[in-house]
Amino acid sequence: MSADVDVISILLIDDNPGDRRIAEIALKEGERDAQMSCHILSAGCLRDGLALLTAEDAQIDAIILDLGLPDASGFEGLRRLRNANPAVPIVVLTGQPDLSMAIAALKRGANDYLEKGEIQPKALWRAIRYAIERKQSEADLLALANTDPLTGLLNRRAFFGQLEAAIEQSRRSQLACAIVAFDLDNFKEVNDVFGHQAGDNLLVEIARRVRGQIRKTDSAGRLGGDEFAVVAPNLKSGSGAIEIAEKIKLAVATIDELDGVHVKTSISIGIAVFPMDDSPADVLVSHADMAMYRSKGRKSGPINFYDEEMDRQVKARHVIKKSMLGDIASGKFFLHYQPIVDTQTYEIVAAEGLARWRNQNDEVIAPGEFIPIAEETGWISALGARLLEDACAYIQHSVAGGRPTVPISLNLSTVQCRNQHFALQLVSIILRYGIDPHLINFEITESAIIQNIDMTRRNIGMLKDIGIGVHIDDFGTGYSSLSILRDLPLDVLKVDRSFVSAMTEDSGAHQIVEAIAELSRRMRFKTIAEGVETEEQALRLREIGIDYLQGFYFSPPVRLEEFRRILDAGTPLGIARKADAALAARHEA
Fold first, then answer.
1. For residue 438, what is the DSSP state?
2. Which of 78, 175, 390, 402 has minimal CB crowding within 10 Å?
3. What is the β-pairing status of strands 227-235 and 219-224?
4. Is residue 314, in this structure, part of any structural domain at all?
């Protein structure tokens, strides 16, 4: 047989070993006449056949199925195979010369049938070839029925089918699904000036470019005239939809020539997002259309969301995202420092370094706006490294200049902690600056630890080995796992601000703080209470036995120059004297 003969893979499912062997021999003997070669996979039950069909590397071209399997009575096996992979043609084998059985099988999705007594090489190969050809014809007809004949995109009916499937998937996955609808701003002018053939050519070119910009999981369709839409499933947020929209907008805007004549093209885009907009498929498309027509006015730009509040939020988030990466590298991100004081003396013993960002418009962006984006994009590791370098540079400069220096605490993101080598990256920066590792602490939440406790234990161990402090941040709001406290080499528990703010009015919160303080003493941890804003809170925390305090009562987070001034003074804003007087007055009362 020549080397260029087609080779197909056939899955044979039959519980009778003798019948399987007959079919295998017939297939091999018929290869020459059929001008085809086959690779046969055999299974004795439906379960094993399904496993072969759905394997990750499976490439099955046809299935030969016995209708009388022990684990699939009647047409059950046929139904389950069709559901598992509807693209693979199926030839059914029946042991009964019953034409009605064969017809029923064809109605249920079989592509051909053969009686077991007819298993001869030519007959078996004829059935397989016919099944494959029939399946291809069905696929061609289906594609024709679902495809816009001009652009090759999905037609309106097929697009709505994809959208409904994407909505159902979104309900199961809890991820968002977006409809990105757009049309040309000047399509009538193109038709009037250059003719309808030129207009058709432009639509074909737009379709080609759209296919090149969307993801494999997205589906693009032509809904009519010059109106197009894309279904974009599996989105974490609306930002993903605006990124797809911007790619499409740019791809269409770069069409500058049509049939040798210079043209200028632009589109207006509207976006609706499920489940934020929990509407049926037809209503979602209508909402995307409404947003698209709002874009026509250009007062709010060429891309708009149906929900105006969502539109504002997503656009603001997208602007932040676009400028973040360059600013991380250029030093636009920096630290503010918030003092941490000794509860008894109110002397500054440490400080927490808190991320700040001054963007290109000289606006200071709050961490709550950019940290989630940095985590979502994976840029948080680069940002964390940048901020650690700032802290190390400050410490290095202070030590070299003989100025007062205290340890600086920095937050570690959950995303950073997923990297199995995160400790090595941090340690290498600290060693490069040649500073005392005891002057750096890292704050990590319980949720970050619990995701991979063995890996986190190894990394924390590496940090501790060279003298870096490790604090549990927001203790009491996460898992509050005693096993974490027992198994990990920690230094400090940080009491969450929610308990501190409530403890003067809520006895339950007060008791939780007392319990954390007692637990820490017994396990030889130090404690920090954050969010201290009043004299009453500070005094109660002192009485309870909390070791250190942090909050606006002492100082807000301040720029480096102000922190140095406070540190040189030794006590922030003279509050120690004020607090001592208040404590003395309480004792006298």
1. G
2. 402
3. antiparallel
4. no
Select from 572, 558, 500 the least CA-distant residue to 354. Answer: 558
Indicate if 132 and 179 belong to the same structural domain.
no
Question: How many domains, in total, are found in the chain?
Answer: 3
User: Residue 184 is encoded by which pair of tokens?
Assistant: 């040309």
Task: Give 414's Cβ-side CA count (13 Å radius).
Answer: 13
Q: What is the CATH number of the domain that holds 381?
A: 3.20.20.450
Angle at 126 between CA 125 and CA 129, to 5 degrees: 80
Both 354 and 235 in one domain: the answer is: no
Q: What is the DSSP string of 301-350?
A: -SEEESSHHHHHHHHHHHHHHHHHHHHHHHT-EEEEEEEEEETTT--EEE
Q: 426-454 as b/e, with b when 16 or more CB fall inside 10 Å?
A: bbebbeebebebebbbbbbbbebbeeeee
Asked if residue 254 is part of any domain, the answer here is: yes
Among 306, 340, 370, the domain-final residue is 306
Q: Does the pTM exceed 0.85?
A: no
CA 447 vs CA 413, 452, 475, 480, 539: distances in Å: 10, 9, 10, 10, 31
Residues 514 and 548 in one domain: yes
Which letter does DSSP use for residue 389 in this model? H
Tell me if 41 is assigned to some domain. Answer: yes
Domain co-membership, 164 together with 126? no
Same domain, 325 and 455: yes
Q: Where are the beta strands (DSSP E) in 447-517?
A: 469-475, 492-495
**Residues in a beta bridge with 257:** 262
CATH number of the domain enclosing 118? 3.40.50.2300
| pLDDT tens, N- to C-terminus, the chain (589 residues) | 444 557 888 999 998 888 888 888 888 888 888 888 888 999 999 999 999 988 877 788 899 888 888 888 778 888 889 888 888 888 888 766 666 777 788 888 788 888 776 778 888 888 888 888 877 777 767 667 788 889 999 999 899 999 998 999 888 888 899 999 999 987 888 887 778 888 888 999 999 999 999 998 899 999 988 999 999 999 987 778 888 999 999 999 888 887 777 778 889 999 999 988 888 898 889 889 888 888 886 655 788 888 777 667 777 777 777 778 778 877 788 999 999 999 988 889 999 999 999 887 788 888 888 888 888 778 888 899 999 999 999 999 999 999 999 999 999 988 888 888 889 999 999 999 999 999 999 998 887 777 777 888 888 889 999 999 999 887 867 565 677 777 788 889 999 888 999 988 888 889 999 998 998 898 889 999 999 999 999 999 999 999 999 999 999 999 999 999 888 876 555 555 555 555 555 555 4
Same domain, 129 and 169: no
Q: Could you tell me if residue 311 is inside a domain?
A: no
Nearest to 50 by CA among 15, 75, 77: 77
In three-state form (DSSP H/G/I as H, E/B as E, the rest C), the secondary structure along 96-123 is CCCHHHHHHHHHCCCCEEEEHHHCCHHH
Helix (H) or strand (E) holding 442: strand 440-445
User: Of the residues 125, 145, 165, which one is the last residue of a structural domain?
Assistant: 145
Instruction: Report whether 124 contacts 26 (CB < 8 A).
Output: yes
User: Do 447 and 478 reside in the same domain of the chain?
Assistant: yes
Q: How far apart are CA 409 and CA 385, in angstroms?
A: 14
